[in-house]
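Folds abound. A case:
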Amino acid sequence: NIYYTEATDPEGVWSKPVRITTDDTTGHKLIDESGKLRGSSSPIGYGGDPSVIKVNGTYYMYFSGLENTSVPPNKIYLATSDDGIDFTVYGAVVDVKKGEGLGYGAGAPSVVYKDGKYYLYYYTQSATNYYTDENGNVTEQIEPTGCVLKVGDTPYSFGKAVETRNTFGTIDVKWVPALEMWVACDYTDEKAHGGYDVKSVRIGFSANGTDFDFTNKPLDRPIQDYSAAITHNPGFIGTETGFGYETMFLTYGVNDLPFGGSTQMFTRQMAYSRITVIKA
């Protein structure tokens, strides 16, 4: 589920979270007329992993979501808003085929608006994507899996997916003008990247937005809580168009605590590191 909260400083007092639901029970409507996404009271259908940018006064929120089905795959949906609170669903901007890969589909978007184009990074286990032309004809396109990039001239339509190299799972990406570089963060799978017994956060750099250089040296990684069993889902705090700074807050989740019972849900603490990147 997607919540909204605000503060003037990460160390300050945060406002009470407001749940942006897929129905209007709290006054915050997030559903289109077709009812494609169900309300929060339904056992299926949800919104998660939001990435929000603001362009020319309009908020564009890309998020992972399920159709009106009981099983994945996830698809990436777009919702728009004038105030950042009340959203209207446009529809799926990444439509994938059911039953491929491990069944996850496509999700965890990260969006940047740069030089009149929309850069959509996301993770996918589905090689098949669907494209609709101006006449409404739908075609299937076989594309890379893993972390990929699509670029669009509008926030509603994107080109073919391109593989991002050296990334691991989902990433959050910012364009940093002062460095003239794309800066990304991801989290590793325990000992597979660096030798730690826990998952940890890495930072990578790219000149072209697709070929990233991540260090796998543990001591070169940003300061984080290595005592936590898992450190995951990192993200940068940047500008409203998805740009970043030489000094940024890097946020991430730590210490998954099970709710108990038969549910597979967890409560997560949020932590952050303040990092400064210097171009050599």
